[in-house]
Every structure is written in C-alpha cells, then in structure tokens.
Design goal:
With 993 residues, this protein is α+β, with helices and mostly antiparallel strands. Helix content is 29%, strand content 28%. The protein has 16 helices and 46 strands. The strands form 13 sheets. A 7-stranded mixed beta sheet has the order 36-35-39-33-32-41-45, with no helix packed on it. α8 crosses α9 and α11 runs antiparallel to α12. The radius of gyration is 40 Å and the shape is elongated. The termini are far apart.
C-alpha cells in the first residue's frame, strides 16, 4: 500500500473466521490509539473481553461495586429470613436478571424490609401498617416482574424482538422505550421522538452561526399538536436533546466544510490537484472489494489509551444464541421460584399452593407474562418510523428567508495614502448580521456608520467585520487603514453584485469590465518606471524568476511549466529555459528551438506558462545547469497506475498541502532520476453488489417480482442474472433508464459500465397463490451483501407462519394462543372457577383477537359475578354495596361491548396474527434481512390461508358464544339479585339528652 496523503483515513474490509482470539489492530503496524466497535447479531452477547484497556457493552464490566454490594446484601438478607437454599436461589436469580433491561432491582430490596419487620412487630395497628406496606410493595413487584418475564420468554423464542437495553430510571426498573411495558419496541427501530428545532444559517455564508445569540433566537420549536403524537414528557425532553445535538453536529460539519473549501482555494496555486488524467485506466481490472454488511444490532466498544503493538491480541468470550436462550429460560425459572419463596406461596390456602405449587406458580407467571407481552401489538408503537422521518424532514427544512436574507448590490472602495473608505448598499429582509468585504488583517477598521448613524453594532468573527442590521435598505459607511505592504487582498464572504474602485497608485485584478467582482480582488502597488522606454527595452540583468514544473504521470504524461516573476514589476524579463528530455510543447505561439523555449515576461506581467507532453518511459531525469539564473521547483503527481522511485536529490513535502506530492528545490547543477514502473494488479472481483432488495407481490393468480441492485463495477462487462424459467421480464432499467432485454433461456444479460450504478428488474409469473408463498429463486454471478427480501401476501389471505433469515417477521399468534389456552386451563383449576375447562378454552381462543386489557376485563367480570353470590358480599356496608352493584352493571355493558367487537372483527375483519420484526406489519408485509449471500439470494417463505377459513371458524365460535352468553347472563342475573339489589343505607341515630 502506497500512502499519498498526509492525513490518511483508510478503511479496509476483510473476513475472518470466528476464533477465541483476534488481533487488536488487524494491521502489520503499531498504532498510537485503537478504538473498535463490535456488532453482535440478534441473540448474541459478549460476556467479557480481555486484552483492551476499556470495554463498554459487555456483561462483566457492566457490574459496578455498588451492583455487587446490592447483590450480596440481597442474598444475605434472603438467607437470614429463610434458609441457605433460598439465599443461593436469590444470588443466582437476582444476579442473572440484574443487568437485563427493565429488570426489577431495588423493589426486591424494598420488599424484604416489611417482610422482616412483620416477623418482630407485635399485633396491633403497627403490624397492620407494615402489612399494608408489604402488599403495596408486592403489587409493584408483580407489575414489574410479570411483563419482564413475558419479554424474556419472547426474547428466547424470537431473538429479533429482543430488548437491546435502555437507560435506568430512579428505581432502575422501567426504561423509557415505546414497546410494551416500556420496551424498546418490537421492531427495534429508532423510536425517540423528534421535536422540531430549526437553526437558520447566516445569509450566504457557512452555517457556523454568526453569534450564539442569533443562533438561539433562530431556534423555533414545533407545536406539539402538529406532531399528532401522544408522548410522555421524558420522551419529548430526550427528543429535544437529541435534536439539539444533531443541530450542533450539523453546524460544526458545515463550518468545517466551509473552512476546508477556503483552505483548498488558498492552496490551489501551490498544489497540483488530481484530474481525469490521474484516474485509473478504464480497461484495468481493479478490485471493487467485497460487499460490506450494513446491519447493526447490539454494539460493544473497546479501546486502548496507549500505543498498541501489532502482535497484541484480544480475547472475547461470546454468548451464542443457543446459550443465551438457555440462560434466559433459567433466568425466568429462577425469578419465578424466588417470587414464590418471597411470597410464601406454601402458606396460601389455594389449590395452586398444594402439591406441585412451584411448578404451577411458574406456569401462571409464564402465562401472564407471555399474554401481556404478546398482546402488545406492533400497531401500538408510537411514533413509527414513517412519522419520525416526516418530523425529521420538517425539522431540518431551512426557512424560506435563508440563505438570501441579505444582499449587497453595490460597494464603492476608495484608497488614498493607505486610507480605506467603503460605502456599501445592503438590503435585508430579516434581523441579521452581515459580513462586510475585506478579510483581516489585510485592513483595520476605524469607524462604521449605518444610514448616517454611528450606533452601529459590529463585531469581529471568522476574520471579517460583521454588522447587525434590521430589515430594509441600508447605507453602510466604513473607514479603515491599510498596513505598509505593496500587495493586499480584498476578499468576500458575502460577495457584492457590483463594485467601484478608486485606488490611484494601485493596480488590481479580479473585477470584470462591468464591475462584477470575483471571489477576491488583488491589489498591487504601482512602481514608477523610466518614461520613454519600451517595456522589452528595459532589460533587468539581475531579474529574479522561478520556474515551476508540474509533472503529471497519468494516463498521459504531461507537464505544465510556469515562470513566475519574483522581482518587482516595471521591467521586462527575458529567459531561455531548457525543456525536459522528450518534452513536446503543446501550447501555440511559443518559440521553441534546439531544446529551449524563449520566455518573455512584460514589464507589467507576472508569469508565463506552457503545457507539454512527455513520452512514457521507465526513466525520467530532472536536472539544472550550473549557469542558470533562475530558481526551479519540481512537483511530481503520479496516478495510482504508476509507482515512482527517486534517486539523487531527496524530495520535500509542503506542510500546507494535504497530499504528499514530492517537491524538489534544486541548486544549480543538482539532478534527480525517477524510476517509473507499473504495479502488478492483484486478482479479485471487479463487480461488487452492495445492496439487494427483492420484493415479491403474490396475487391470487399471478406473482409480480422486483429486484433492485446497487452495484459498483471497475470494468465494463456483462452481468448475468439467473431468473425463474417461467419469469417474463416486464421492465429493465439501468441507472433509471430503460434498456433492451437480452435473455439466453432463463439468464438475463445486463451490460454494466465502470462506476457505481443501479439495476431495477421487474418480472411476472403466472402462478396462483397456494398454501406456501416462496420468494423466487434468483442467482447472481457474484457474492451480494445487505439483502432485503419482502413478500406481500394476498390481501384476502391469513398469514399463519413464516420462515427465512433470523432478522425477519415473527408470527406470534401461536405463542399467544398457546399461552391463552394455558392461562385458561390454570383458571379452570381454581376452586371458585365459574366456567368449565372446555368453556375457558373456547373463550380464550376468541379473546386472542382483542387487547389483553379487554380480555382481563372479561375474566374479571366472570369472577366478580362469583364474588357477588358469596356471603362476604352481603356484609359490605350499604353505600359501598350500592356502588359495587352500579359498577357491576357498567362492567356488564363493557363486557357485552367486548364480545360484540370480537364477533364483528371475526366475521368481517381480518385475524390479528401479531406479526412483528424487522419492519414487518400485520397487513401481510413481511420483510427479511440477510447480511450476505454467496450467489443464490435467500428464499424466505410464508404459509397462508384464505381469510374465509378464519371467518368460518369465528362464525362457529360466535354461535357458541351466543349460546353461552345467554347462560352466563341468566346466571349473572341470579347472582346480581342475591340478597337484594340494593341495601338500605342506615343513618346513625342519636339519642335525646
């Protein structure tokens, strides 16, 4: 590798097998500092990494001394309150769950306090208060633990829906996500809200904010009602902070780009920039490299604070997917057992607390957790990605007033005896600060007035004098002084449209005849000359000149030679410069004779230049003669197709030039020999498929497919794509332009051009929809990366199952159904259950199509009716008795409405299958992602049925529900009337004195 830039930003792509150790740098060179980001796929985690100075994101270093202290204290407390077996259980259960997102932490410690106090406090009101404290803490624990268990089990089944972590809050239990129960969201997309903050850039200038006050005044928040989102205050604050940080980064980026452009403009006359001649040969077979996967999931960072040797190794200990699933199930089981110990379930007088209580408690937690987590539909994720993108576009939209908020139509400049006077006419449409012409320190301001008033607000920033103006047309008058120099530059940040210059004693360039200025105007002080002599007759025998040869070794060898005047103007220069070996002058109207060129520079001219072509050779000699009366500077700029070796005078490299272009400044008689060779090309792929998007839209009778490829090619060649045999290509576009279709059987031949390009292919197949919908088999000639496959199922079909790459959709219907049936069986085992087992099972099947909260209301209504017929209900005071009766009536109507909704959705709508993951949606939009493929693109599939199968099943369920509901209502009316509908409210009687 040959380095030709002073500041190298090198990116290398490689592939290595997963081993127990890996190199720290990956380079055969030492490094001062190294920072690494390790991306892990779904379901994988990093237990620990050894060999680096700092690690962020692994499990081991996430523990602090405070965390270890709390773990030990909690385990010892459980050991003291129960026994050693409970203490060991607490240690492993609490330890395995401590670092998990949204895991209960401090609430466990808060629960042990009332449990311990209850064992020593005597009977009385104090014990009742402590008992109330215990039950309230227990309720908080259950609210946090049940959703956490559900998410953990879901994570084990569907790794693509895992929670990748959030910041802890005060209690350390609930994060600030938008998924179910504070999760990150099932699709793991960017879900932080964007609250609009727009900073308007300075007029016609780099967006670096003329002053902090102006920047702060230009920030305008978007009203919350425009976002049409219901967000918490914490989410809005995070969004504001994120947007402010992005704006700061954006402004610094724009400011740096502006500074770089100015610096490049200054170095334009000093460096020889690359052009098309320095590009690669269009016929050269140049590697385009492999496609780089662009996915990201869980990220781990590690770095070194000291120099790193090339031989250093790091030792990562990874937790693979299968082990993480086992640990997750173990974590859930231990937490459920720990909850059973803390709650003393053996003392409960319930059927569940008899033989096999631990297993049944675990089953109940499993059912409740999965049911709660599973019923959190992807449609409830607010805001979705499309809303975020819309808000972001709205936030970053520049106001219409910028960047043309100010304009300078005319400026007059007067220079007399080094006193400078500027009169400018400035038009503004807003309150802005405007940079005046002239960069410091070329001049020094003395006074400034606006519209004849001296109360002008000015400041120096970024090398210019800025003046604050109100909307309108203004006359700005500025006076200043020039330093004692023979040359100076009048530069602009906001260029005037026209200028007028009155500068006797100065010559200037950079102004067109109509008064339109360029980006800067150069002034040179005039020198008095002897009158009566022609310019070429004023020979300067001691003239000083510089010969600069810019040699370019590219596809064509050429050289540009410039002779610059170094002595004062006013006298002509005549030189006879020797040409390089085999140099052929291409510039017309120059005198070339005997290997020399005659150079004539007029009295008021600064330079003379010509262009030439060189013959390609293995050797090139540069030398000066002992009697030369000028100084020479040689620049060499070689394209990547040439390798150049130097012998003789050693080159130097200018500090002001970012490119490492060799420069020689020889003395008379010194020489340099250049050995030029063409490096041998390393064999490799000349076509890289960076991204692939394969979309399949299955209809009832035909299938429409579209393939979009993002490619990079270094050599024009044919690209062969193998399509299905029955595929009929309907559209073929190359870089958005229609091209003819060339086919050889099932092979599609597409001609490629060098460079980056896109291909879009559409085809159709007469294939009716079946039970399975499989993506078409497409074969590419090279390896591809970042493959996205989308299947759109028919609108009247019911997606039952999906199969494909890991990052894809998950049909959670069967998990929800299994858990619902399990929960129904658990409820049927209760001694006071109002329904038989088969009735609970049928009811649970239908309630999977409604939110879990509504299903809980139905179950609660049934058990409320059981309690209504119990003797304890008759002992309730009269006012509370009446209130509960009214509440029961309202709850009955709510339950009837829930049943109506279930029947309506079942008979007219579509089934709720809980499809989530990688942006997939409920409406049959299924999306998979695979980092790379060898040649054959992935072929994910889905299993579908006509929606009428679902509706017929729901019709049978609705008929059963109608029959069962009549029995339930009759039984409910009997329960409602036991002991009377309402009890009289007795007033307390007072006796007569």
């Amino acid at each position: 590798m040959e380095i030709r830039e002073r500041e190298v930003n090198l990116q290398a792509t490689g592939r290595a097998a997963l081993e127990r150790q890996m190199p720290a740098t990956g380079w055969r060179s030492n490094a001062d500092r190294v920072s690494v980001r390790l991306h892990l796929p779904p379901g994988w985690r990093l237990f620990a990494l050894f060999g680096a100075d700092n690690v962020q994101g692994d499990w081991l270093t996430s523990w602090t001394l405070l965390d270890v202290f709390l773990l030990v204290i909690f385990s010892l407390a459980v050991f003291k309150l129960w026994d050693w077996r409970a203490g060991v259980l607490a240690f492993f259960a609490f330890g395995l769950a401590y670092q998990e997102p949204a895991a209960p932490r401090y609430v466990w410690l808060a629960l042990l306090l009332p449990v311990a106090v209850l064992r020593v406090v005597p009977e009385g009101w104090g014990k009742r208060i402590v008992a109330a404290w215990k039950y309230m803490t227990l309720a908080v624990l259950l609210v946090l633990l049940v959703p956490f268990v559900g998410r953990q089990i879901q994570q084990a089944i569907y790794p693509q829906l895992e929670d990748r972590g959030r910041d802890r809050n005060v209690l350390g239990e609930i994060g600030g996500g938008t998924g179910a129960f504070g999760g990150d969201g099932v699709n793991n997309e960017e879900t932080s809200n964007v609250n609009a903050f727009v900073a308007a850039p300075a007029p016609n200038a780099p967006t670096d904010a003329a002053s902090p006050a102006l920047m702060e005044a230009e920030v305008q928040p978007l009203p919350a009602n425009e976002a049409n989102l219901e967000l918490s205050e914490n989410a809005r604050n995070r969004a504001q902070h994120q947007m402010r940080r992005e704006l700061v980064d954006q402004k610094w980026s724009q400011r740096k780009q502006a500074a770089d452009s100015v610096q490049q403009g200054r170095l334009a006359s000093k460096s020889y920039s690359a052009n098309a001649n320095l590009a690669y040969d269009s016929k050269a077979r140049i590697q385009t490299g492999p496609g780089v996967p662009e996915w990201s999931w869980r990220t781990v960072g590690f770095q070194w604070n000291s120099p790193v040797q090339e031989s250093q190794q790091v030792y990562p200990i990874l937790i693979p997917l299968w082990l993480e699933r086992l640990l997750t199930l173990l974590r859930v089981a231990l937490l459920v057992l720990l909850a059973g110990v803390v709650l003393d379930v053996r003392k409960w007088n319930l059927p569940l607390a008899r033989a096999g209580a631990a297993a049944r408690i675990a089953t109940l937690f499993f059912a409740l957790g999965i049911a709660l987590c599973a019923n959190a539909s992807a449609d409830s994720q607010i805001p979705d990605q499309q809303t975020l993108n819309t808000l972001r576009d709205r936030l970053l939209k520049t106001p219409d007033v910028y960047p043309n908020a100010a304009d300078i139509p005319f400026v007059s400049l007067s220079i007399k005896e080094r006193r400078l006077v500027m009169d400018a006419e400035i038009h503004t449409v807003a309150h802005v600060s405007v940079p005046l012409p002239g960069r410091f320190p070329a001049w020094s301001p003395v006074s400034a007035t606006v519209d004849g008033k001296s109360e002008a607000v000015v400041c120096r920033q970024d090398g210019y004098l800025w003046i604050a103006l109100t909307p309108g047309v203004h006359r700005v008058h500025v006076e200043g002084t020039l330093p004692s120099a023979t040359e100076w530059e009048w530069a602009f940040q906001l260029t005037p449209r026209r200028v007028s210059i009155d500068a006797p004693g100065w010559t200037y360039t950079g102004v067109r005849p109509d008064g339109v200025p360029e980006r800067q105007i150069f002034f040179v002080q005039k020198q008095k000359s002897i009158t009566g002599e022609a310019g070429y007759e004023q020979q300067d025998l001691r003239s000083v000149a510089e010969v600069r040869r810019n040699i370019e070794l590219g596809l064509v060898w050429q050289v540009t030679t410039t002779v610059n005047r170094l002595s004062a103007a006013g006298k002509a220069i005549s030189l006879r410069i020797p040409l390089l070996p085999d140099e052929k002058v291409l510039t017309p109207d120059v005198i070339v004779k005997d290997g020399f060129i005659d150079v004539r520079i007029g009295a008021h001219e600064q330079q003379f230049s010509w262009s030439s072509e060189l013959t390609v050779a293995n050797q090139l000699a540069l030398e000066t003669r002992a009697g030369d009366t000028w100084v020479e500077r040689w620049y060499l700029n070689a394209s990547p197709v040439w390798n150049v070796g130097f012998t003789g005078l050693s080159p130097i490299f200018e500090q002001t030039n970012s490119s490492l272009i060799p420069l020689w400044t020889p003395w008379p008689g010194e020489k340099v020999s250049l050995a030029v060779t063409r490096p041998e090309a390393i064999s490799g792929a000349t076509v890289t498929v960076r991204r692939v998007r394969h979309e399949v839209a299955q209809g009832l009778r035909t299938r429409e497919s579209e393939l979009n490829l993002d490619l990079q090619c270094s050599l024009g060649e044919d690209f062969v794509i193998v399509l299905p045999e029955k595929a009929e290509v309907t559209d073929l576009r190359h870089n958005g332009q229609l091209i003819p279709v060339r086919r050889d059987g099932n092979k599609l031949i597409v001609p490629l051009r060098p460079g980056e390009q896109t291909l879009a292919i559409k085809w159709s197949i007469n294939q009716p929809v079946g039970l399975r919908v499989v993506a078409d088999a497409v074969q590419l000639p090279v390896e591809s990366a970042n493959i996205t496959t989308v299947i759109r199922s028919p609108g009247m079909h019911w997606v039952l199952w999906t199969h494909g790459p890991l990052r894809g959709p998950a049909v959670r219907l069967w998990g929800v159904l299994a858990v619902s049936l399990l929960a129904a069986w658990v409820l049927s085992r209760l001694s006071f259950s109002p329904l038989r087992t088969w009735e609970w099972l049928l009811l649970a099947i239908g309630l999977t199509q409604v939110p879990w909260s509504l299903a809980a209301v139905v179950v609660g209504w049934l058990f409320w009716l059981v309690w209504r017929g119990h003797e304890s209900f008759q002992k309730i005071p009269g006012w509370l008795y009446a209130l509960l009766q009214i509440a029961l009536i309202v709850l009955t109507f709510v339950v009837l409405g829930a049943f109506v909704e279930v029947v309506d959705k079942g008979l007219r709508g579509f089934p709720l299958t809980y499809i989530e993951g990688n942006g997939s949606t409920q409406g049959g939009y299924l999306k998979w992602f695979q980092p790379s493929a060898a040649g054959l693109l992935p072929q994910p599939e889905c299993v579908t049925l006509s929606v009428w199968f679902y509706r017929f099943l729901m019709l049978a369920w609705a008929l059963w529900l109608a029959s069962a509901l009549l029995r339930w209502l009759k039984w409910g009316w009997t329960q409602f009337g036991l002991g009377g509908f309402f009890h009289p409210i007795r007033k307390k009687q007072t006796g007569t004195p």
